[in-house]
Write a structure and sequence with these properties.
This protein is α/β, with parallel strands linked by helices and 570 residues long. It has helices spanning 19-38, 54-63, 67-84, 98-113, 197-205, 212-223, 260-277, 285-288, 308-322, 355-361, 364-373, 385-415, 427-448, 452-473, 475-478, 483-504, 509-518, 530-533, 555-564, and strands spanning 3-8, 42-49, 91-94, 117-127, 132-133, 139-142, 151-152, 169-173, 181-191, 231-232, 234-235, 244-245, 248-249, 257-258, 297-304, 331-335, 338-340, 343-344, 381-383. 46% of the residues lie in helices and 15% in strands.
Length: 570
């Protein structure tokens, strides 16, 4: 049994997330967590809401609510939606927690003691219209790298380049829209990332199995231009983790908070403490400290490509710089973007299908299957309604759903709602078992290496084998002359349904549970040898005929939804 720690990039609290956010981190992380649990491994799957920084303040202001109330409300909303998509977090925490506050301040103290934090008098943008400094996302303007005219003061979401507010061309306040800005002096703390460049380089070079997308972004930030730069880790904001050196005041930093991208990754660790404090687990340190048992943990992170620099450089710099035995990530699975009908999904721009909207029109399995089978791994993917309709109808309704319906209804009509006895398995069944075993091993191999689209393709191929077997064996025809032989075909097919319940659970958990219950399987058990697994539903075992697993999406549905989700959300 392995011990597997999984974290998904924590979503900003500023509203409901879109499907691009879902497939870029949370959903593939859930797939991997479910798979590892099914294989019998000890899994801790953590996520949280990212509640600090300008996105939170701006969203609360727009909603005309106190920020504390807004964050609490939106955490409940995001938790409910996550449950709606069957995201199986062991804990869904909050970066505003006391646990994260204490850990963030603790790490800052450790880094300061190691000489890795320096104080800098820097020039920042002050807005006369707003009467305040405008750090990072309070400023919008044109990216100097790619020309995108809605770049933010910390990063351009179009080209992913890390920015400072003063880098923007034609900057304006994100609060008032005013361009009456002035550069003034203010003092802040900087993390001396440049001092850790060599350590980070050696560490990244050692990750030979990381996706090219992950390592290419990390090395670009590490080596391009003047190389890795020191990064400001404090802001002139009211909301956030107050700047302290451990449990001590930090002279000169009164009234300032830590930068959200300093405290947010630390929430992964804090979330484990929250998990324990909530009574869900024990001994969080055995997952995070190598001197307390985490040396046998394999740690996986899931995120969109825009989050890669912070997780490959800034957060590891914090961990390495502390000089303490904290667990570093072993594997980072990063994703490109999912686009929507020729444009980008965007929370800030309100563009695309959002998670709550998706659940209003279709059950979660429809979305889970399409998003995972089209995951933007090697390049961007694009959602279109015709493609969604065609793939869902073909894979879920025509292949899996149709097989289940044909087998169970035929058996009920000829043998009753029990697994029939009689007949023997022959060469056709042996050939099927051999093919299934090969497909199972390929499926597992792709899941182990987190090749999501390939995993989905293998799972679909396993479903197809059942259809091909049923079509060639023709129990409805055989029954007319040899009922016992037909019984053997049906018995094999019913066992296939039970097998599909086990193998499909990571992708489509609701449908898998319906199949498991229908076939009377009380335990979730991952197959090892297909030949043995296909004998578990024995003659005389009862089953039920499930309702139609998947309704087809019609052209009319697509027309209505295409119009309804035109790409803009208020």
């Amino acid at each position: 049994m392995k011990r597997v720690l999984i974290t998904s990039a924590i979503p900003y609290i500023n509203g409901i997330k879109h499907l691009g956010n879902l497939v870029g981190s949370q959903l593939p992380a859930d797939l991997f967590a479910r798979y590892n649990r099914a294989r019998g491994h000890e899994v801790l799957f953590l996520c949280a809401t990212d509640e600090h920084g300008t996105p939170a303040e701006l969203a609360a202001t727009k909603a005309n609510k106190p920020i504390v109330d807004y964050c609490l409300e939106m955490h409940k909303v995001q938790a409910k939606i996550a449950d709606g998509f069957r995201l199986s977090f062991d804990h869904f925490g909050r970066s505003s927690s006391q646990q994260n506050k204490e850990l963030t301040q603790y790490f800052a103290g450790c880094l300061s003691d190691k000489g890795l934090i320096r104080e800098v008098d820097e020039q920042q943008v002050f807005s006369h219209a707003d009467g305040r400094f405008l750090p990072d996302r309070y400023i919008e303007g044109t990216c100097p790298n790619c020309g995108y005219d809605k770049a933010r003061g910390d990063q351009c979401e179009n080209c992913t380049k890390q920015l400072d507010p003063t880098d923007l061309i034609n900057p304006r306040s994100a609060i008032s829209g005013s361009d009456e800005l002035e550069v003034r002096s203010t003092r802040h703390l900087y993390l001396c990332q440049s001092s850790l460049r060599d350590k980070l380089s050696v560490w990244i070079d050692g990750k030979k199995d990381w996706p090219v997308l992950t390592t290419s972004i990390a090395k670009k930030w590490l080596n391009d231009g003047d190389g890795l730069q020191d990064r400001g880790i404090t802001r002139d904001l009211d909301w956030g983790v107050p700047v302290r050196k451990g449990d001590q005041d930090w002279p000169g930093m009164e009234g300032k908070v830590f930068y959200v991208w300093f405290d947010a990754p630390i929430e992964y660790i804090a979330c484990a403490r929250e998990w324990v404090d909530a009574g869900k687990g024990t001994d969080w340190e055995r997952w995070w400290r190598t001197d307390k048992g985490a040396d046998d943990v394999t740690y996986y992170q899931f995120m969109g490509k825009d989050n890669v620099p912070f997780h490959t450089l800034s957060f590891p710099a914090t961990i390495l710089g502390s000089g303490e035995p904290w667990k570093l990530v072993d594997y980072i699975k990063s994703f490109n973007y999912l686009n929507y009908d020729g444009g980008q999904f965007s929370t800030s721009q309100g563009r695309g299908i959002f998670m709550d909207q998706a659940l209003e029109i279709l059950p979660p399995d429809y979305w889970r299957w399409w998003l995972l089978s089209h995951a933007p791994e090697s390049s961007d993917s694009e959602f279109t309604w015709p493609n969604f309709q065609a793939n869902v109808n073909k894979d879920l309704a025509d292949v899996l759903g149709n097989f289940v319906s044909r087998v169970t209804k035929f058996c009920r009509s000829k043998f009753g709602e029990v697994v029939p006895s009689g007949g023997q398995f022959g060469q056709r069944e042996k050939h099927l078992i051999d093919n299934l075993q090969a497909r199972l091993e390929a499926y597992q191999s792709h899941m182990e290496t987190i090749e999501i689209r390939k995993s989905a393709s293998e799972l679909r191929a396993i479903w197809v084998l059942g259809n091909e077997y049923l079509q060639s064996a023709e129990p409805w025809a055989v029954f007319k002359t040899d009922p016992d032989a037909a019984a053997a075909i049906v018995r094999m097919s019913l066992n296939l349904i039970a097998l599909y319940a086990q193998l499909s659970e990571p992708f489509i958990p609701d449908a898998a549970e319906v199949l498991r219950v229908a076939m009377g399987r009380k335990e979730k058990r991952w197959p090892n040898l297909i030949e043995d697994t296909l004998k578990e539903c024995k003659p005389g075992d009862p089953f039920t005929v499930p309702d139609n697993l998947f309704n087809k999406i019609t052209d009319e549905h697509c027309e209505i939804w295409s119009e309804k989700f035109s790409g803009i959300r208020d």
